[in-house]
Amino acid sequence: MIEELKNCRLCPRKCGINRYEKKGFCGENAQVRIARAELHFWEEPCISGTNGSGTVFFSGCCLKCCFCQNYEISAEGKGFPLTENELAETFLRLQNMGAHNINLVNPTHFVPNIIKALDICGESLKIPVVYNSGGYENDETLDLLGSRVKIFLPDLKYCDSEISMKYSHAKDYFEQAGQAIKKMTAIAGKPRFDENGLMTSGVIIRHLVLPSHRKDSIRLMDWLGENFAPDEIMVSLMSQFTPVYQAFNFKELCRKTSTFEYNTVIDTVNKYGFDGFIQSRTSADKDFIPEFFDEKYY
Ligand code: SF4
Questions:
Q1: pLDDT at 281
Q2: In whole angstroms, what is the distance from residue 143 CA to residue 179 CA?
């Protein structure tokens, strides 16, 4: 049994429940579940490279954002169970397929299981591990990872606590995510790349510009500018907001982000001199949602 799951405080919800007996807010018990493990070509170029990133999509989520594109797995329970041994085999399968890295998508609530799987792989796993999360993290959980993770890819979603409460049921989102990003930067250091331009370590902060909320996005970019030097982090700005799932319950989210809204946020990122990625607006559609599975298929 994994000790941390008996009194689960892995994410800022700190449910304190025994996940061997029941599920917490994240919707998951003690057994790892994933919904897909494949090469993925639509991450940032320094992550996807030419061969693809070895993405593993974990089921459940500590946030449950109303506009989640992956709501089938984050909120509706899609996915299939794996033992830690099978998870380790999955990581090695992706490496054998040519993945540049192992990309843990939404891993927070399964961190101790992932650590077990990574330790089973040991030195057989030679590619870097990417921690790709919603940014809603506890320092203690990030500490558990030790040096196993080299690249962090956290979201930074909202600044205002009313907005984070309304869309993700997390009033303390910014407080937790801001602190987590500082911690991730301390763990991973400045962005580093190999001779092919692939990231080997560092932090890329992702921000999805929501329709009707450009001022909150600008506040976040200002916060980054005030807290990080341009060479300490990278910023990836995304424009692909498409109303899905419960976004239709909010009138202000029932459209795509406008060019004006997106450009004003880009201007703020440029003002602080951060390197990074600006996603083309043509990618703003649902084709980016991959297929998820209910049964092990590989
Ligand atoms: S990981 Fe799940 S059970 Fe654990 S504290 Fe977070 S929401 Fe609760």
A1: 52
A2: 13
End-to-end Cα spacing for the chain: 27
Rounded to two decimals, what is the model's pTM?
A: 0.96
pLDDT at residue 284, as a whole number: 43
In a domain, 293, yes or no: no
State which of 2, 4, 17 you would mutate to test the pocket of ligand 1, scoring each by most atoms of that ligand within 8 A of its C-beta. Answer: 17
What's the pLDDT tens digit per position in 59-100?
999 998 999 999 999 999 999 999 999 999 999 999 999 999
Residues 6+ positions from 292 with CB-CB distance below 8 Å: 35, 36, 57, 70, 72, 73, 78, 79
**Can you give the residue range of the structural domain that contains 38?**
3-288
Instruction: Read off the CATH number of the domain in which 113 is found.
Output: 3.20.20.70
Atom of ligand 1 nearest to the CA of 25: 7
CA of 286 to the centre of ligand 1 (A): 29
Mutate to test the pocket of ligand 1, among 6, 14, 22, 25 (most ligand atoms within 8 A of CB): 25
